[in-house]
Amino acid sequence: MLVSAIIPAFDEEKTIAKTVSALQAVDEIDEIIVIDDGSRDRTADESKEAGAITFSLAENCGKGQALQVGCAISQGEILLLLDADLQDTAQEAIALLRPVMRGEADMSIAVIPLSAGKGGFGLAQRLSRWAVQRSGGPKMAQPLSGQRAFRRQIWRELGFSGGFGVETALSMGVHRRGYRMVEVPVLMSHRRTTKDWKGVVHRGRQFLHVFLAIVRHWRWLI
To answer: What is the rounded CA–CA span in Å between residue 222 and residue 54?
Structure first.
């Protein structure tokens, strides 16, 4: 069963090569696809030099569109979504693949150790968690985790949209359609926004995108 790793990347020239290299060490992954989402730096060049299939968007279209493009050009029956800044810890992706490859789950989601003193205020996380539960799912530890493995059929049925609301919409839809989902603890690490002004702006956008994703799929809440 072919596995495609898909990485949306925006201005990640410092991390993308290490992330790609780490994934190349995972034998279960058949292709690594990086979608350069209109980066202003050398993200695309670093990705190509590291050996990934690289597709560059002409402008920054957002995470949802980048993932949509990545899945459309991929070949795998199992899709593995990962952030560009995981670097060496991307090798932990094997833990996400196992339950899906073994038929124990249709989607697996990474639960990443939280860094002390990092992160936002948790508003977007709580809103997403409520929406997933309201849609028939469990109380998730990290509903906004972008590290996921799932069967291609899930993408065909649900697609991606909504920028940072992608994960919330996926988790809501998976339960409404009767698929099995598990959270998997992994030793991955990546940047987390802090409570400075830049972090507050990012979290504000994330909260808005999650809210809009819920509104877009409000029927799943009934």
So the answer is: 40
